[in-house]
User: Which sequence fits this backbone?
């Protein structure tokens, strides 16, 4: 099925639609004053993702949604600037950058996404999947493509939420960052603070819309992997990607 374009497209559509919807919900719940135009555009992007005809078009839709979402991300951060420290250590977010992350917020996001990839890789192994064989993300040496596929709807719900919580609750401060060449990274105390924020988020309870019972996000990862297994075995007609209420 990973070699069947129709299957890859259908699964990718479900994952991307759910991701955009969850991004929009995060803005609605946590933004100081969410822009109605941005929310409307994200809603339109989710509809377009559900109806997309090709993976190439889907990548474009996902990219546009990310631009809108991260363009509004600063409104989720509620801290003051510490003028005694360098600007790159401040929680002043001006857009996503990575490989390497060049400011404090992007350093947190990149670390969080790497943790989520690890946890979804573990979930894939627990279910019996090869995490290297993906459907939306193409297989590449050393790349857990299936874990990257399954984590898409959970990026805003787990990682972005953990980053916001870590910053706003001062579990991580600008003093917890160091500069290494062109990149920004956390020191030991900063990593400890962010790991705590991430684990607290993973232990948060959420209601699964398919089963209507509450489980932790950590348990949710394995549930979603098992639902994909049921789809591959023909037990369910489509993949029920997780969308928060």
Assistant:
């Amino acid at each position: 099925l990973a070699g069947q374009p129709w299957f890859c497209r259908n699964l990718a559509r479900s994952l991307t639609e759910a991701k955009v919807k969850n991004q929009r919900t995060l803005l609605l719940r946590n933004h100081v004053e969410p822009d109605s135009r941005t929310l409307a555009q994200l809603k339109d992007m989710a509809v377009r993702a559900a109806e997309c005809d090709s993976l190439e078009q889907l990548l474009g839709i996902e990219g546009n949604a990310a631009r809108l979402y991260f363009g509004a991300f600063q409104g989720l951060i509620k801290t003051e600037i510490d003028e005694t420290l360098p600007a790159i250590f401040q929680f002043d977010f001006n857009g996503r950058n990575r490989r390497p992350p060049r400011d404090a917020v992007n350093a947190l996001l990149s670390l969080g996404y790497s943790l989520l990839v690890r946890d979804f890789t573990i979930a894939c192994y627990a279910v019996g999947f090869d995490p290297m064989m993906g459907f939306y993300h193409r297989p590449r040496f050393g790349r857990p493509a299936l874990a990257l596929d399954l984590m898409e709807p959970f990026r805003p719900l787990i990682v972005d939420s953990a980053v916001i919580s870590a910053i706003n609750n001062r579990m991580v401060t600008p003093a917890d960052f160091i500069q290494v060449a062109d990149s920004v990274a956390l020191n030991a105390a900063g990593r400890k603070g962010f790991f705590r924020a991430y684990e607290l988020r993973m232990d948060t309870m959420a209601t699964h819309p398919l089963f209507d019972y509450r489980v932790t996000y950590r348990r949710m990862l394995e549930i979603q992997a098992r639902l994909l297994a049921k789809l591959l075995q023909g037990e369910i007609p489509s993949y029920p990607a997780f969308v928060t209420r």
In short: The longest strand covers residues 177-180. Residues 5-30 form the longest helix (26 residues). The radius of gyration is 18 Å.
